[in-house]
Amino acid sequence: MAQAQQAVTQQRIPLGRWAFKKWLIVHAPAFLGGQAIVEIPVDEPSKAVNRNVEITLYDLTKDLTHINIKLRFKVSSIDGDRALTQFNGMELTRDYIRNLIRRGSSKVMIIKDVTTRDGGRLRMEILAITTYRCTRTHKHLIRRSIMDTLDKVSQEMDFNTLVRDSIMGKLQVEFFNIAKKIYPLRKVEIIKIKVLEQPKGMEAKPQAEATKVTQEVPQQLTSGQTGGA
Question: Between the CA atoms of 115, 116, 122 and 128, what dihedral angle is there, to the nearest 10 degrees?
Answer without folding.
Answer: -100
